[in-house]
Recover the amino acids of this structure.
């Protein structure tokens, strides 16, 4: 639906008071079995219509470093004259520096690629990326090929580990781990289930300034084994049943040492989070069977809220659904901000770069890619909202407050 929002309540967007413009409030349409209560403080999101798309590649997860720049992985396409492809024994993953303060006028520089053989798997992709105290930690995960099936890479493989750079991506030190000997030792065999799958770092702002304890946190997608009600592509690059969490004190010595990690193990009787170094005791942060998938988290410092963004990719080549949850605690409980059916219409790798959260905490930019199957399956999915597509898409949004909802200026 469309709603005209009075700019008197949109000062945080930097627009003139007294003017009027049209915003698109995305309807929240959660399935009937949604386990989350609606948020009382962030009651939806509106798209301002401002957007831009950069490059011709996906998998962008910007990390805001102490030097003011953002640093991001990318793959499966090209940035300028540099190309990266994540399939086969000659797979590469890309890296780039993102320079600028204005989301609509960014420069992507210092572009390069790094090789990573996925064997015995078929593909190797970027995931958790963090620049902290001048060190860039760059994680990769693998996917299992399924020849003869119509689904797209429908078996999620291991999170391998982190390579790192001390010169912002000019040179790299490879991870000591391999796809056959991954950091967390999962899956037990190719095709088995994982829990810390394709993990991403929680975005705590510039140089992790808002980490609650100086630790880096990771959220990953996974599924239990055995799964009582599996669906097609039950655990893939974009589908899952649960979300899991780990944390570590970031350092070159720690990042590839599983013994240095703690894993979220649920809550105790008083509601306090349990942290354990025993991976077998890990518990879901979010558990919604057949409704989870790729996950990112950002801390919205002005609102003092953690925003958890999850995309459920259906059968991996269908239209996708993305929902946003919020909590005042990094381990929940979680409440629903919005459930966006067919966002993109095939939007994926969705995240909220902290670099572009406004001073009021209500203005932000969604970063994502979309509609990758249009090119090779001719699916003709729409760019919805307009301006999306394959690449690094940025869409400006407003996190609606109850007063926005109560007085939207609808006419």
């Amino acid at each position: 639906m469309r709603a005209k929002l009075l700019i008197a309540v949109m000062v945080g967007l930097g627009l003139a008071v007294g003017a009027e413009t049209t915003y698109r409030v995305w309807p929240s349409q959660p399935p009937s079995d949604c386990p989350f209560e609606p948020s009382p403080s962030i009651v939806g999101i509106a798209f301002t219509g401002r957007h831009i798309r950069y490059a011709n590649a996906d998998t962008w997860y910007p990390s805001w470093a102490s030097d003011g720049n953002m640093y991001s992985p990318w793959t499966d396409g090209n940035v300028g004259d540099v190309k990266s492809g994540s399939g086969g024994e000659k797979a590469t993953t890309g890296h780039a520096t993102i320079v600028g303060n204005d989301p609509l006028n960014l420069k992507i520089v210092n572009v390069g690629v790094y090789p990573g053989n996925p064997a015995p798997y078929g593909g190797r992709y970027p995931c958790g990326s963090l620049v902290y105290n001048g060190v860039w930690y760059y994680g990769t995960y693998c996917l299992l090929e399924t020849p003869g099936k119509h689904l797209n890479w429908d078996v999620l493989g291991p999170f391998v580990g982190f390579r790192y750079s001390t010169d912002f991506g000019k040179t790299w030190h490879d991870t000591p781990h391999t796809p056959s000997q991954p950091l967390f030792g999962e899956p037990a065999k190719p095709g088995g289930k994982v829990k810390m799958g394709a993990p991403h770092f929680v975005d705590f702002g510039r140089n992790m300034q808002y980490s609650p304890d100086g630790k880096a946190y990771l959220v990953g997608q996974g599924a239990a084994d055995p799964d009582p009600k599996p669906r097609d592509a039950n655990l893939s690059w974009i589908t899952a049943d649960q979300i899991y969490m780990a944390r570590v004190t970031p350092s070159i010595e720690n990042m590839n040492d599983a013994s240095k990690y703690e894993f979220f193990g649920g809550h105790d009787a008083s509601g306090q989070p349990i942290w354990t170094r025993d991976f077998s005791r890990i518990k879901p942060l979010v558990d919604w069977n057949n409704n989870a998938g790729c996950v990112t988290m950002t801390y919205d410092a002005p609102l003092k809220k953690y925003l958890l963004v999850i995309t459920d990719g259906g059968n991996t080549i269908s239209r996708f659904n993305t929902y946003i949850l919020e909590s005042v605690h990094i381990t929940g409980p979680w409440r629903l901000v919005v459930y966006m059916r067919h966002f993109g219409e095939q939007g994926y790798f969705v995240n909220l770069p902290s670099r572009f959260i406004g001073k009021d905490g209500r203005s932000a930019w969604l970063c994502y890619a979309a509609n990758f199957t249009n090119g090779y399956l001719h699916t003709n999915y729409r760019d919805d909202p307009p301006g999306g597509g394959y690449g690094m898409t940025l869409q400006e949004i407003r996190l609606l407050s109850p007063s926005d909802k109560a007085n939207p200026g609808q006419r």
Summary: The radius of gyration is 20 Å. The chain is about 0% helix and 40% strand. The longest strand covers residues 155-165.
